[in-house]
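Appendix B: complex inputs.
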Amino acid sequence: MSLSRFLAVSVAACFVLLTPAFAQDASFRGRVIDSADGLPLQGVNVVLYAGEALYRGAVTDADGLFFLSRLTAGAYEVRVSFIGYETRRDTIVFVGGQVLERNTTLSAGSGALDEVLVEGERTAGVARITAGLQTIRAEELERVPSPDLSGDLASYLTTLPGVITSGDRGGQLFIRGGEPAHNLVLLDGMTIYQPFHILGFYSAFSADILQRADVYAGGYGSKYAGRVSSVMDISSRSGNLREHVRSFSVSPFVNALRIEGPLATDRLSFIASVRQSVIDRFASTYINQPLPYTFGDLFGKMHLKVSENHQLTVTALRTYDRGALDNVEAVGGDEVRWNNTAVGGRYLVTPRRSPVLAEFLFSISRYRIEAGPRNAPDRFSSLGNFNAGINLVAYVGKSDISYGSYLRTTTIDTELGGLYQNLSLKTARLPKLGFYLEPNIHLGGGWWIRPGGTVQFFDQFGFFAEPRFRALWQAGAHQVSLAAGRYHQELTGLNDRRDATNVFTAWADAPFGELTRATHAIAGYQVDVSRSVRLAAEAYFKDLENLYISEWTPLPRFTTNLQRADGEVRGADFRLEIDRPAWSAYVTYGLSSVTYDAQQEELALWFGSATINFRPPHDRRHQINALVQTEISGFDVSVRWNFGSGLPFNQVQGFDAFLLLNGNVDVESEAGVRRVIYDRPYGGELPAYHRLDVSVDREIPFKGGVFTAQAGVLNVYDRTNLFALDLFTLEQTNQLPIVPILGLKIEF
Amino acid sequence: MRTARPSSSLLLVAVLALAGCSETVNPFVGLEEPYTLYGYLNPRTGRQTLRVIPIEQRIDTEPSASIDAVVSSTHIASGEVTTWRSTFTQFDDSTFGNVFVGDFRPAYGETYRVDVTRSDGATASAQVTVPVDIRIIPEPNLSPTLLSFKVESVSLPNIVQADMFYDTVRLQPLASGLNPIRYPITRSYRGAEEAGDGGWRFLIEIGTDYRFIENEFEAHCLTRDWIGVRAMRFTVFVGDDAWVPPGGVFDPDLLAQPDVFTNVENGFGYVGAGYPVTFNAIQPAAVLGAVGFATTNPCDPARTPLTDPSCEVVPPPC
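Resulting structure:
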C-alpha cells in the first residue's frame, strides 16, 4: 500500500469514527475554569447525583474538559469540586439525544473534594504512579531544592526512582535503562529533541510555563510512537485570560523573566518567558571553580478561544546550550553546543452534536548539536521534524475510544568527523505515516483495560505494527496497574559513551538497516494506607534490541567503529509519600539492572565468545531519594537527600604500545601507538553518589504582588561526587561542591 | 534531655563530615605481565633487534634509557645464551623507546628462546623457530606482462608478506616548468601465492598493477598523463609458522587487543623469526611501455627525470 493510499484510508477511518454513536442517549460535557485567571482546571471532579445516590462522574482533563455520555434522561444534581476551591452545586435536566454543554467557573476557597468518586488513572504525587505513568504538576517542581526559585522539571525528575542522570552537568537522562535518545519529549505535541540543559538542574520546562507533565517511564499507550524507552508528554500553561502578570527572578545561576496576560479578556491570552544562565559569570566566582556553561530558553504561547467549542493555541520554544564538560580549565579545548527550535499549533474542537473531542496538531521542530574545538566544531548533527496529526476521543458511557493519525517527516544531516569508521552518514529523510487506536474500556468491578496498537508505515523500512496494552484495577484504597507494549524507533542516537564527558549525540537512521526495538512489561500496585499516606511499588522489564554502541577497542583514539548490542532492563520502584497538613515527605527507592550484550566478530578472539555481556555506564543498581518539605515560621523549608550506587566504568590493567608486526617491520624505526590494556568492559564501579540539598523560601506579599526570597545550600556536606575520570591522566572531574544558593523573585 | 542536644549536634556534624569525605578511585586492576615485546630473529643478519615496552600504570609515562630489563636469548639445541644490549632509540616520529640488540646470527630451522627479565624476577619470554631458507626464482613470463616468481625451499614456507614495489615518477607540468614527483607505490600480493612444485608461485600482472598505480595517482589528485617507473622489486617476507594473524588478516583494530595475537608468555606482543627476500624485477622498456608506463620524457629529452634527485616528494592524499 502506498503512503498516499494509506493516508486516504486513515483519514476516512477517522471521519467514520467521528459520527455520533448512541444518538438517543444524553451526554453532558463542559469545561471547568479558574475564576482568577480564566484558565482550565485539571483534575476537577464533576459528579452527577440522582437524589442522594451517586449516578456518574468524570474528571476534567488538561484542557479543563469533562465528558459524560450515555446518560439516562432526567433531573440530576451536579457537583463540581476541587481541592482549594469552593464546590459548585447545580441542578440540570437531560433530554434524550441531547448533548448538554455547561461550563463552570470555580473560585478559590477552602473546599475539598467531596469524595474521590471517579475511577480512572490516579494522578499527582510521587506515589501516584500507574503502570509507568507519573503525572507531574508545576507546584510539585517547587518542592525540590534547586538553584531556581521557580522549580524545574529536570530537578524533579532526578528525584524519581529509575531516572539516572549524568549528574550536575551534561543534561543526559536515562529512564529505566533507556538511553537519552530513547526518550520522546513532547511539548504541546511538538517534538523537543534535547530539552535538558547542560547544567543538570535545568530544562526548557520551568514551573513558570509548565502545566503538567505526563512521564511514562515505559509501557506507554498507542498514542505514542517513535521511541523505545520513555515518553514525556508536557503541556504548557496558557497565559492569564483576565489580568496581566509579570515575574522576574535573579540568582547566581539563572535569571528569568515571564510576562503573561490577556490580549482580549477571556478570549485571547499570551505568555512569554525567557531564561538566561549567568553561572559562568557569578556562580563560578563564589564556587571558585570554572563553570563554562551558557544556556537559556525562550518560550511563548498564544491561546485563543475561538468559540466555546473551538480553541487554538500556538506555542514556540527556543533553547540553546554551550559548554565544556571535559578539561574545563583548558583554553581552546573542546566544547559541545546544541539548540532546539520548535513552533506548533493545536486546534481543539468539541463538536456540539457529538460526544467527541478532536485535537488537530501541527508542528515543526529543529535541533542541532555541534562538538569539537571551541568556535570551530568538527562534528555536528541536525534534525528537522514536521508533524501533522489528529487525535480524537469518542466517549461511550464510562468508556472511551482514542484514535488518530499522523504524518511525520524527519530530516537528518550529520557530520561525524570520522568518529565511526564503519558508518557513512549523509542527509536522510524519514517520512512516516501512523495510525493508532486505543479503546479505554470499563469492564466493571473496578477494571479498566486499554488494548490497542499503532501501525507505522515508513518509505524505507515498511510496516510496523505495535500492540499495546494497559490495564487498571481499583478497589477502595487499592490499585493494580499493568502495561505492556512493543515499540520501534527509526531514529538512532549515536553516542560514544566510552567517555562520560562526551554528550555529543549524532543522529542517524537505522545504521545497519535494523530499527531499534523494545518490548516493555510493567506491573504496579499502590495503596492509600490512610488519607495522608500512600505506598506504591512497581516492577518493570524492558527488552531492547538493535542498540548501537561504540566498538570495544584498546587503542586510545577518538575514532571507533559502531557495533550492535541488545539490552535487558529489570527493576522495581518503591515509593512512600506522606502528606500532612504541616509537612509532607516522600522516600523512593529504585532497584535496577541494565545489561547489554554486544555482538562483534572480533569479540570471539578477545573474550572467547562473539557476544560479551556487560553493564553499560548508566547501570545504577540502587537509588534512594528522600524529600521533606515543611513550613517553619512562615518559611518553606525543603530538604532532599539523594543516593545512587556507583556507576560502571572501564578498568585498566596497564598501558603499553602496539606495533602492527605484519612482516618486515623495523622496530628501530616504528614507534607504534600507545595502547590501553583494558580489563573486561565496564568491570569497575565508581564510588557511590550522594548529596544533601536544603532550601528555604519565604514569600512576602505586597500590594499587587508577591516577593519571594530563597536561600539554601546544595551538597551540604560537600561530598566529592565524581562526574568523570580520565583513565589516561587520572584527572578527576567532579560534580558541584558545596554551593550556596540565593535567589530573589518578584511577581506582580 | 537538654544535655543530649550538643552531643546530637556533634554527632550530626561528624556524620556529615564523614559523608563528605571523598573516595579515591583506582582504575587499575593490576597486571602481572611486565613487558610487551615486538621483534623477530633474522637469520640473514648478525644484528637482532627487540622492542621492549614496560607495562605502565600511566599512559603518559615517558620511556627511560635506564630500563629495568635484561634481555637474553638461548639457542635451545646447544644451550648457548646471548645477552642483548640495551639501546635508547629515537623512532621516525621522534619519540624514544627501548630497543635491545643481540649481536648474533640465528640459524635457519633452529629454535630460540628470548627472555626479558625485570629486577624483581618477573620474566616475559617467547620461543620461536627460525624458518628455513628460501630462494626466489624468476620463471619465464607467461605473457609479456604476466610475470611469474617461484619461492622455493625444502618445505612450504609461511609467507607473511609479499609485495610488488614500483618506484614511480610523475612529471607534473606547471607553467614554470616541470615538477617531477616521486611516488613509491607498493601493491600487496599476500595471499596470492599458489602451491606447486615444492614451493609457492606468484603471478604478477603488471598491467593490472599499472591501473592500480593510476588509481593511486588519481587519489592524490595527480593526472596520469606521464607515469614512469625507475625500479621494480618483488619481496617476500618469510616468517615462522606461528606468524599467522587470526582470521588471516593483519587488521590493526583486531590485533591491537593484547591477547589476540601473541606468543609471549607472561607478557604481550609478538617475537617472531623471519627474513625478507627481494628480487629486482625491473622490466624492459618494451614491456613497461606495453602496459602504459612512459619510457621517454616527452618534455625534456635531454634530462632524465627518472633519476632527477629533486623528485623525492611523496604527494599527500587530497
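The helical segments of chain A are 3-18, 138-141, 153-157, 283-287, 603-607.
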